[in-house]
Amino acid sequence: MRYTKMHGAGNSFVLIEDLRGGQKGEDLSVLALRLCAAKHADGLIVLRPPLAGEDFGMLFYNADGSLGEMCGNGARCAARYGVEHGLARDAREVRIRATAGEVRARRIDDELYEVRLNDPSVVDPARDAVTEDRRVRCCYVELGEPGIPHAVVETAPEDFARLDALRERGRALRRSASFPRGANVDFISELAPGRVRAITFERGVEDFTLACGTGCGAIAVALLLAGRLPEGRAEIEMPGGTLGVTLRREGGTARDILLTGPTAVVEEGEAEV
Fold it and tell me: In principle, which of 113, 130, 138, 165 could form an S-S bond with 76, CB 3.0–4.6 Å?
């Protein structure tokens, strides 16, 4: 099987083509487990036929084989793949059909890509997440429909130097009964107005990743609704690099969430599965 391994700010994926749509979901789930383990990737992206005029479809599987609704960094990598392999008709507007809805992306330069994340379908600025030993206030956001669930949690700057303890907090919060489908947990600490440090405990990877694109979108939504992004721009420093987000407020929610960051091709080859 032909594959391409890519990453967006360290968030790594194996991409394969299934442009006739012949592979079944259960087979792809097993394939995700095998390929992600073999290639040390955070997820599998399967490029599928378009459904309603898009350039192509995208199924995203987490490293544990579960189907994800969407992936921001993955969509940026898929957009670059589509441009460079002739699947996209226009590099200035790449249209991708993900499980969470249509995603549009564009090429800025050879490596820099921007993706418009799905608008929030659920926003709860002050949800209490209950675990066995604590109650944590967070901003809960779902991007798209069905939505990608994120819990944005403020934490102290020094906590980023104690990742083992922070990981245990993330693991507990990720499975809190306060989140019906579980949640990705985004820990943040403000560095300056419009600039935060962040790390995400990702559902489906069950650990921290080097970057999370939809997490950056959810973080920006939380900051915007809290009045902390007056110009609608955020720079989010994640372990794998800095991602930029712009968005606008509309009543009690946000719209037009644009995620910008680098992409990289790591390797291409044939995998035995």
Answer: 113
**Could you list the active site residues?**
71, 212
Residue ranges, comma separated, of all CATH 3.10.310.10 domains in the chain are 2-117+263-270, 120-259
Q: Is pTM beyond 0.85 here?
A: yes
Nearest one of 105, 76, 116 to 261, comparing CA atoms: 76
Class of domain 2-117+263-270: alpha beta
Q: Side-chain half-sphere of 162: how many Cα atoms within 13 Å?
A: 9
> What is the average pLDDT across 180-195?
95
Residues 6 or more apart whose Cβ sits within 8 Å of residue 106 = 79, 91, 92, 93, 94, 113, 114
DSSP 120-186: EEEEEEEEEEE-SS-EEEEEEEEETTTTEEEEEEE--GGGGG-HHHHHHHHHHHHT-TTSBTB-EEE
Which one-letter amino acid corresponds to residue 43? G
Q: pLDDT digit string (tens) for 80-138? A: 999 999 999 999 999 999 999 999 999 999 999 999 999 999 999 999 998 888 899 99
